[in-house]
Protein 1
Amino acid sequence: MLNVAVLGSGRGSNFQAILSALQAGTLPGVRICLVLSNNSTAGILEIARANDIPALHLSQRQFADESAFAAAMLEAFRCAGVDFLVLAGYMKRVPALIVQTFPRRIINIHPALLPHFGGAGMYGMHVHEAVIAARSAFSGATVHFVDEEYDHGSTVLQKEIPVLPDDTPATLASRVLEVEHALLPEALRRLASAPDAHT
Ligand code: GRF
């Protein structure tokens, strides 16, 4: 059983996709035990509360420094029995202590084909603007393990789609988002059904 915490900063549509897969019975061996956001008004927290899943607002701003923040995060994970983390639109860097505590047990979804269009500053609409500016023929989404560098850990799953001639950053973002909503639950399903894959 993977006891999963989902971390996000915004509307939570990727989290909703995981919930829908759980409700459809296509994610055996996965339990969501906590949702955490750095943003108190994030949709992802509302979705969690509406589904009776513990929802926690935790931001570095509430703490004196990163180590106090990381310690509070770890304590929240310990209390909830978390052993796996999913970053679903989490816009903050995960403290190094957390990455070290959960080696190959944290995944992130990125809205492009890593290793391209990743790294510092490559988030949200910036990613799709960069893909279009570079006239890339393809974009897509990548689920990868999280290490201490942005968008750097090894790939779990990737799916590409063509960039259409009349795509704008917004139209590309919405087609990539559809891919994300399929890819993230699928990655979780594979990791939960191959327990050694993430050790
Ligand atoms: C997604 O595009 C994700 O790849 C990116 O942020 C967006 C989050 O959307 N990192 P949502 O909050 O899951 O709706």
Note: The chain is about 35% helix and 20% strand.
Protein 2
Amino acid sequence: MPQPTPTAHGLEGIVAADTALSDVDGERGRLVLCGHDAESIAPTATFEDALFLFRVRRLPTQAERAIVAAELGAARVRAHAFVPALGRSLDLANPMDGLRASVAQLPGLPSAGESVEDHATLVAAATAVFAAAWSRRRAGAAPIEPDPGRGHASDYLRMLGIAPIAAVDLRARALDSYLVTVSDHGMNASTFAARVVASTGSDTVSAVVAAIGALKGPLHGGAPGPVIDMLDAIRTPDLAEAWVRAEVAAGRRIMGMGHRVYRVRDPRAAVLEHAIERLEHDGVRSERLTLARAVERVAERVLAERHAGRALKANVEFYTAVLLEAVGIPRELFTPTFAVGRVVGWLAHVQEQRATGRLIRPASRYVGAAPGA
Ligand code: COA
């Protein structure tokens, strides 16, 4: 009789696809985005660059960057035209519910005469436009029309209504670094969800909606808001140790720490930490950086005492929280802003999965009652 395969709970270590999009080296702490080290491109690359990179598999020239920026600007304007018809989607209390319901109303596939690329650009643009529209509705304010002449990051800040803020360009630069850094990350849960949906032959928007649902969870994209709550609760570095110990003793997880794949510090944490340092250097003070570093040191030490065999270090969400706060984004928009960046990866994975033509359909082991038992 064949031996049953052991159940791979959480599918840890299971390779479910070949991908040319990104590589996560959990042992060495390295993230490669389409042939580029995330650490080397994030300080200067823009969201537009990421969109181009995942489509064409190389970084754009200046001229190509301008073309993508124009396409993306036009797509934001097209996406904005959907806002009046989004109805109650924008009234949903949870921002990720609002984003999910709003994106769900986009046409699932390219309309007649629209290319696959233009449709994907619309979905990418709409993620930012709808997140901003939700935020404005929440504040009881009218949505702000996109400015197609701006970069995507800068226009997202503008549409959120946090402009005119001091040093908006510096903030947009930091936000671009963030959006590029989180644009893709191997077979993470939301990307897997998108690929599963795409593998059934379903449409692009259905796959992205599934991904948004997965990203909402606190074990995936929902951690940075709670990281800021944690920093609020700790208040000063000297109180960090007692707070972290009490949380761990109560059996609660320290948000922004630990990772399924990384056994060293998440390289994205360093990229974002440097982006915050650059902001500070340029005069945009982040109140949190000193406190965050102190909490990270303490949390790493306390978690190491408790889980000697498992390196639990800062993940991307830890410094995401600090960076997005410094940029001026309200904490309830941290996870939607993650989606604004990650949508680039989702869209590329949907195409890649489609090209395989292979349905993702794993097996399960029945552990229920036998018939008649
Ligand atoms: N705080 C406290 N304990 C943690 C922890 C954290 N942040 N992360 C993991 N642990 C504990 C687990 O409870 C587990 O303990 P046990 O063996 O006593 O059951 C042990 O460490 C090993 O966990 P591990 O197998 O590494 O976790 P995972 O791969 O299932 O989960 C995460 C990875 C990211 C879900 C997990 O680290 C976590 O919940 N982190 C906090 C949420 C977060 O920051 N999410 C964003 C991810 S980018």
Note: The radius of gyration is 21 Å.
